[in-house]
Each structure stands twice: as C-alpha cells, then as structure tokens.
Amino acid sequence: MSEHLIQIEQRGAVRLLRLNRPEALNAFTAAMLGQLRQALEAAALDGTVRCVLITGAGRAFSAGQDLADPHVAPSREGAPKDIGYMLDHYYIPVALRLRSMPVPVVAAVNGVAAGAGANMALGCDVVLAAESAGFLQAFSKIGLIPDCGGTWLLPRLVGRAKALEMALLGDKLKAADAAALGLISRVVADAELQDTAMALAQKLAGMPIRALVETRRALDEALKLDYESALKREAALQSQLGFAYDYNEGVAAFLDKRQPEFKDR
Asked: Could you give the C-alpha distances from 191 to 49, 53, 132, 135, 196, in angstroms and in order?
C-alpha cells in the first residue's frame, strides 16, 4: 500500500482524487480499489471537503479491471477465481460509497473508460468527458456481465434497448454520442477538461451541499416509488431542510441581494 495508486490533492474545498496507474491505463487492482475507498472515506469525514473530483492520470480514465490481478486472473492450470469475491470486497464498497458521499462527486473522464472504469464514472453525480474519451461495456468480450453498478445504471440512463446494445456488443461509444444519449452530462475539449471540471467542482462546493446530497438521494429513491410516495418524500425532506442553516441563509441572501455563504454539510 506504499505505492500511491490514488493521488490526492486539496484545492480549496474540492478534494481531487486521481487514479494513478497511467502505465496500465489506470486499470483497477485490489490495492488500487482499497486506496480509492480509503480516499473516499477520508473525504467523507473531512468537514473542509465540499466536493470530490475524480479523474485519471495519463491518457485514460480507467480501462476497467486489471485482468492480471491475482484476485481475478485464472491460475496457470486454468483454475478460475471467484470474481464475485472481488466485487463483494472491493468494487461494491466503492460504488456504494460514491452514491452515499455527503458531498457531490464529479467525474472528469480524460480518456477511455471501459468496463468497471466506465461504470465507476457513471456512478458519480456529474460526469464530464474529454472529446477524445470513450465509454465501453467490455464485459461481454470476456464472458461476463456489466458490474460495478452497470446493470442498474445503464437502463436508467439510456433506456433498456440502448443499454442492452451497449452491454451485449461492447462497442466503444464516443463521448459526444454518450452525451447525446444522456449517459453523461457534457463533453469538453481535451485541453479544457481539467480546468472546466475543477471550476464546476468549485461551483458545487459553494452551493448548499446538504440540499445537493438530499437531491441525489431523492432522485435515486424516487425511481422505486409511486408518484404519491415521491411527493410525500419530497415534503419530508423539505421539512428537514427548511430548519437548516442553509435555507435561512439562502432566503436572507436573496432578500438582501447578496451572495449566500452556505455552511451545512
């Protein structure tokens, strides 16, 4: 664990996490996922962090699982490994932490995002991609199904028909096409991606963080609720947020015609 597989920087209220195996296109290993989980947990516990930005070092976001990792690579004798163990102990904790972070999470996809690398990015709150980036569900090419949340995310983002096409064929999807389908938020020129993503993260960091996080939670929960239940869930959340500091500050700033200073997290 001495190797820094996740580079960590603090820029104001934004915690930047950079996947750092550029020589392997940032392919995931158990060690790398362990460090990513630790970095996310540390950001969640740090009250000075108001947004997390995740990107990749070098020319890729992540090529997905490193198939040479002993946790998944079959032995020389051909004996298979229990890939479910890798998911249970490494991928699922990271995926769940991303969806439950107490601050917004932005992904800046700077190159290829394949397999678990694609679905890790899609599990973030806002996904920006460089023009040269591409997304592919590479699982079918090695006899597997989409994981790291792929079976949940894809049909909700692009619909069942397109999700099946992406998952079954495993073809690369250009960033512009991913944006047109609603798979990601927007496409940015390669040279501008990092600055644009950081500016967006800084903007989110200055907003009412608790309300943003509850918005994410409400949208996710509404997917499994009927309309009336969703309305009642909104009312319950508004009741809670209405007693918080940020609501009173936001209203006061609006009436005073000044910039609000949000503090809740």
From this structure: 26, 17, 10, 19, 10
